[in-house]
Write a structure and sequence with these properties.
Elements: H1 30-37, E1 42-50, E2 56-62, H2 63-79, E3 87-91, H3 96-108, E4 111-114, H4 121-131, E5 135-138, H5 140-148, E6 158-161, E7 193-198, E8 208-212, H6 213-227, E9 234-237, H7 245-249, E10 252-254, H8 268-278, E11 282-285, H9 287-300, E12 309-312, H10 319-328, E13 333-340, E14 343-350, H11 351-363, E15 368-373, E16 378-382, E17 404-409, H12 421-427, E18 428-430, E19 440-450, E20 456-461, E21 466-468, E22 471-473, H13 475-483, E23 488-496, E24 503-510, H14 519-534, E25 544-547, H15 563-569, E26 576-577
Parallel strand pairs: 1-10, 3-4, 3-5, 4-7, 5-6, 9-10, 9-11, 11-12, 12-13, 24-25
Antiparallel strand pairs: 1-2, 7-8, 13-14, 14-15, 15-20, 16-17, 17-19, 18-19, 19-20, 21-22, 23-24, 25-26
Helix pairs in contact: 1-2, 2-3, 8-9, 9-10, 10-11
Length: 579
């Protein structure tokens, strides 16, 4: 499959400059840099079915071939009229199409717009209409949607169809079967818009986050340095957008056999088979996914000795899940990075620190420790406010140990939302820039505190804090206390009662096979939960309990509980009351 490549001409890279002396920064530079370093190393493995012996059959591309694929796409985009600054809506399947097209767009200086279709059609169409893309690259189904909903897609003037997992470089006619010349990188600047990535909308309307080329560069440096990732490693990313880091990090990407729109339906046996067959060294996924994989490993006595690290994120990671994986990974570690679409990563913590220090405190209602800030990121906690804060003031900061709103800044922290000035004003605080840090604080929308040793503790989403006669309660200080019950899958703290007479209540999702079928069984289950809560000062006042078979969660991670939706669902229902 590999062919000799034409010699790549000198292209702008970080540290070079245009004639006006401005430094050129283009995140796409990492791919040709890896071609120079490891041209014949596999960059991407795409599952294509099963062989007779039961092994997975892959379409393999080396770094040279992936670079050639992105060059071919970049030339095709340029021929279609897509150039520097063009906004391009991507509606493609995760994997080869997403990776190749994003790097092709970066090379051209165009701006990929990535919207999660799992947010629902109405919200998706609003996002498209607001972002005003000029072009779209889409699988055939997306082209059909654009024709059906012409109003939302009225700004789109260029439409190109993309065949899922089909390399453009393998789809040529004999007459045109020649290697595309290297595509010169666009001379973008550090503060040029590189991409618009949408939030999941788990606690509000989805928003387009504006990423600049310099922010992506900073993310690559931080991820590499924080986790000691080396070129030549093999990654199985169970969040599609995370695969975009791998070409820049020099890692082989093994695409998992799973539906990204239904992550909870993943077959853990297929994930484990891919890890073993491909020699996977690292993987990223939500705690819900790793719970399924961990349960399968424990049930079948499976260990994964070749894995160096697992990253679990998207929701707080239960300490017992980390404990299970200490046995499954005899030579590896579990890490939990904390962050958001607007700022990632912010902090990180290892399984060792959780199990040796913070797990016992989490069980006692202290919250979830998410570790210390990663390099070049500054974290502070300020007083709660639901109003915009225009200018930074050190008087906003609360003392160590006091719960407030988490704010962060650093070179990878984004500065604005696309076409949403009010949302930007509500989430960003301006401050005089320092040489090592930009002049923007991002409000994470999370509550937490910093302890005396500089660790950050997550207490829950700010919008989901609950007012009760005993004061304000926070989801991640309360729920872990009840999640220890052996028949509980997960719990959700919600606001109950009418305005002026608010009470805290707990919605309980029992484990599979543990649903209380009778009134008496629900009463006994609630009594056991009440005893757990009574033993902890934080949860002592929680006396109201609801039971629900399946929580509404985000599509992206299948881990973030939609607590506000649960509160609306149970607003008029009678709880099981245990005084």
């Amino acid at each position: 499959m590999a062919q000799a490549l034409p010699e790549r001409s000198e292209s702008p890279a970080i540290g070079t400059a245009d004639p006006d002396g401005t430094r050129v920064v283009n995140v796409a530079r990492f791919l040709p840099a890896m071609v120079s370093r490891q041209p014949d190393v596999l960059a991407l493995r795409v599952p294509r079915g099963t062989r007779k012996d039961g092994s997975i059959r892959y379409l393999d591309l080396t770094f040279s071939e992936l670079d050639r694929e992105t060059d071919a796409w970049a030339h095709r985009l340029a021929e279609a009229g897509i150039s520097r600054g063009t906004r391009v809506l991507l509606l493609v399947t995760p994997g080869l199409s997403l990776i190749a097209l994003c790097f092709a767009l970066f090379k051209a200086g165009a701006v990929p717009v990535v919207i999660d279709p799992g947010m629902g059609l109405r919200a998706f169409l609003r996002c498209v209409e607001r972002t005003q893309p000029r072009a779209m690259l889409s699988i055939p189904r997306g082209i059909w949607v654009a024709r059906l909903f012409r109003g939302a897609f009225s700004s789109v003037k260029i439409r190109l169809t993309v065949q899922p997992h089909q390399p453009l470089t393998l789809n040529r006619t004999a007459a045109s079967d020649r290697v595309s010349p290297p595509f010169p990188l666009a001379p973008t600047r550090s503060d040029d818009l590189a991409a618009i990535l949408f939030t999941s909308g788990s606690t509000g309307a989805p928003k387009g986050v504006c990423y600049e080329h310099g922010m992506f560069e900073a993310q690559v440096r931080t991820v590499r340095g924080t986790y000691g990732i080396e070129p030549g490693e093999i990654d199985l990313p169970m969040l599609p957008v995370f695969a975009l880091f791998n070409p820049a990090l020099g890692m082989t990407t093994v695409l998992p056999e799973m539906n990204p729109g239904r992550p909870a339906a993943v077959d853990p046996a297929k994930i484990i088979q891919a890890i073993r067959q491909c020699g996977v060294t690292t993987s990223f996924g939500s705690p819900v996914l790793w719970r399924k994989i961990g349960d399968h490993c424990r049930a079948h006595g499976i260990t994964l000795p070749g894995m160096r690290r697992i990253l679990m994120a998207g929701a707080p990671v239960p300490p017992r899940l980390m404990e299970d994986f200490q046995k499954i990974l005899p030579h590896g570690r579990v890490y939990s990075p904390y962050g958001a679409t607007e700022a990632l990563p912010v902090t990180s913590i290892s399984d060792r620190e959780v199990l040796e220090y913070s797990a016992a405190l989490t069980d006692r209602g202290r919250g979830t420790c998410v570790g210390r800030p990663v390099a070049d990121v500054e974290v502070k906690v300020i007083r709660f406010s639901d109003d915009p804060i225009d200018q930074w003031n050190d008087a906003l900061v609360v003392p160590a140990g006091e719960i407030g709103e988490i704010v962060v800044r650093g070179p990878a922290v984004t500065h604005s939302y696309d076409q949403l000035p009010h949302a930007t004003a509500s989430a960003k605080i301006r401050v005089a820039a320092r040489e090592d840090l930009p002049g923007i604080w991002h409000r994470m929308g999370d509550s937490g505190y910093i302890d005396e040793d500089g660790r950050l503790w997550f207490c829950g989403r700010k919008a989901e804090r609950v007012r009760s006669p005993d004061g304000v309660l926070f989801t991640d200080r309360c729920e872990p206390v009840f999640n220890r019950h052996p028949r509980v899958a997960r719990t959700a703290l919600i606001q109950s009662g009418s305005p002026g007479s608010e009470e805290a209540a707990l919605v309980v999702q029992p484990r599979e096979g543990c649903w209380p079928r009778t009134t008496l069984a629900r009463l006994e289950f609630a009594r056991e939960l009440r005893e757990l809560g009574r033993a902890c000062e934080t949860t002592r006042g929680i006396t109201r309990f609801f039971f629900h078979r399946k929580f509404p969660v985000d599509v992206r991670h299948n881990a973030k509980i939609h607590r506000l939706a649960l509160a609306r669902r149970f607003a008029d229902r009678r709880p099981v009351l245990i005084p």
